[in-house]
């Protein structure tokens, strides 16, 4: 994995045209993606909102998911947020940079739980229409086990399909805020 530090990631963001944002549910990847989209004028593509879900929490079939990811990946510019390992190769083939949120699991768990007062039962901006926020025991287990079950698959995908692609690991909200502050500086 071609790891870069926060300062280099901020410098690269100023000229990047296509950025992947990865991270566990609740880690802040959609929030970061939205902020970067606004800052740099790049379209924000959310796997949850734009690719996976149809109203009523109905998942699209795999062929349609692959076709949408292929189409979106071919765009000239984007911030693409989402983890699905099966769709990582076409995104990585076009990406200039990966920002990977890897906070401790308790931070991601808290990030998901704190959605309850503001979003539970409502559709968040990063979710598909007709898919109101729901938090259940399966979702919380997914977050709790993410680093053990999902993270190794994602790491393998990056090694196999994007070993030379610059990757910035953001291990805390402080690191994300540092990145955003550096991006806000004019040079």
Written overview of the protein:
With 187 residues, this protein is α/β, with parallel strands linked by helices. It has a single domain (2-184), classed as 3-Layer(aba) Sandwich (Rossmann fold), CATH 3.40.50.300. Helix content is 50%, strand content 16%. It contains 10 helices and 8 strands. The strands form 2 sheets. It has a 6-stranded parallel beta sheet with strand order 1-8-7-2-6-3, with helices on both faces. The longest helix has 13 residues, at 137-149. InterPro entries: Cytidylate_Kinase-2, P-loop_NTPase.
Write the layout of secondary structure elements.
Layout: E1 2-3, H1 6-13, E2 18-23, H2 29-40, E3 44-46, H3 47-52, E4 53-54, E5 58-59, H4 62-73, E6 78-81, H5 88-94, E7 97-101, H6 105-113, H7 116-119, H8 137-149, H9 151-161, E8 166-170, H10 173-184
Parallel strand pairs: 1-8, 2-6, 2-7, 3-6, 7-8
Antiparallel strand pairs: 4-5
């Amino acid at each position: 994995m071609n790891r870069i530090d926060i300062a280099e990631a901020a410098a690269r963001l100023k000229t990047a045209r296509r950025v992947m944002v990865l991270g566990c549910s609740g880690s802040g990847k959609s929030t970061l993606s939205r902020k970067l989209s606004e800052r740099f004028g790049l379209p924000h593509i959310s796997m949850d909102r734009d690719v996976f879900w149809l109203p009523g929490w109905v998942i699209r079939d795999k062929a349609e998911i692959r076709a949408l990811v292929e189409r979106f990946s071919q765009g000239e510019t984007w911030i693409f947020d989402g983890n699905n390992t099966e769709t990582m190769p076409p995104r990585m083939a076009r990406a200039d940079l990966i920002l990977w949120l890897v906070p401790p699991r308790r931070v991601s768990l808290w990030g998901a739980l704190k959605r309850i007062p503001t979003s539970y039962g409502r559709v968040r901006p990063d979710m598909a229409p007709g898919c109101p926020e729901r938090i259940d025991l399966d979702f919380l287990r997914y977050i709790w086990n993410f680093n053990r079950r999902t993270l190794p698959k994602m790491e393998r995908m990056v090694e196999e399909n994007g070993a030379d692609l610059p990757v910035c690991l953001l291990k805390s909200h402080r690191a994300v805020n540092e990145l955003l502050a550096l991006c806000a500086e004019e040079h």
